[in-house]
Write a structure and sequence with these properties.
The structure is a homodimer. The first copy, chain A, is α+β, with helices and mostly antiparallel strands. Chain A is built from 5 helices and 3 strands; from the N terminus they run ααβααββα. In chain A, helix 1 crosses helix 5. The longest helix of chain A has 21 residues, at 85-105. The structure holds a DNA duplex.
Chain lengths: 111, 111
Amino acid sequence: MAFNKKEEFTQKEQDLAAFAKAISHPARIAILKTLAQRNECICGELVEILPLAQSTVSQHLKELKSAGLIDGTIDGPRSCYCINWKAFEKFNSEFNSLFNNLKLKNEKACC
Amino acid sequence: MAFNKKEEFTQKEQDLAAFAKAISHPARIAILKTLAQRNECICGELVEILPLAQSTVSQHLKELKSAGLIDGTIDGPRSCYCINWKAFEKFNSEFNSLFNNLKLKNEKACC
DNA sequence: TTATCTAATCGTATATTTGCGATATAAGAT
DNA sequence: ATCTTATATCGCAAATATACGATTAGATAA
C-alpha cells in the first residue's frame, strides 16, 4: 500500500468511519452492551464476561476510549468505565442524516 | 495471535460488528452516500468521484456487496450498484435495541 | 517494608486490510 | 475478427488489527 488515503475524504466521512471502526469487533460490541446495561462497569468484570485475556480486553477498552465511545476513571487499584452517550448521539444523527433521511425519498426499486 | 475469537460471541454481536466493519472506511461511506443520493450508480462514476484507483474502488464495492449493504447488476459492459435498504433497516433496529433503548433508562452521570 | 491485587503496557506472532499496477474477462463497436 | 471500453480479479507490498504472555506500575493490605 503506497499510502493511507483516509485523509482524502471529508471530515464527516472520516468521523462516521472512525465510530464504525470502533464498534466493528464483536468483543467491543459486547463491552458496550455490558456498559449500557449496567451504566458502569469495572474492568475486571468485563474480563470475566468476555472470552479473552485480560491484556486483550484492556486493549479493546483503550481503543473504545481513544475513539471517544467510553469514559474511564481510576478508582483505587481498579478502573471504572461507562459509555459516553454523546458520541452515540452524534453517530446516530450523522448516520441518519446521511442514510435514513435519503431513504425516504429513494426507496424505489433499482438494480 | 493464536486464533480469531470472533465466533465466541453472539450472532447479533457478530452481525452488528460485520455491518460496522463494512462502513468503517471513509471510501465505503462515500460510496454509500453517493448511492443513497442517486439511488443507483455506475462503477465508473464512483471511480471518478473517489480519489482511488479503479481496482481499489472495485474492491471496496465487493466488500460492501458481500456484506449485503449493496446490490449490483451487470448492465452490458458496466455494473450498476444500489443500496440494499433492508440491511440498513436491520442495522438500525439492532443498534437501537442495543443502545438507544438502554440510553433512556441509564443516562445518569457515572465515572 | 513487603506482599498482593488490579489494570496498563510491552513485545511478538499471525491475520487482515488497504492500495496499486498488471492482467483477465466480457460486452459492444468497427 | 479485431479494437475499444468497463469492470473484476490477481499478485504483491506495506500498514493495521488481533491476541496472548510477560512485565510494569499503582494502590491497598499485612
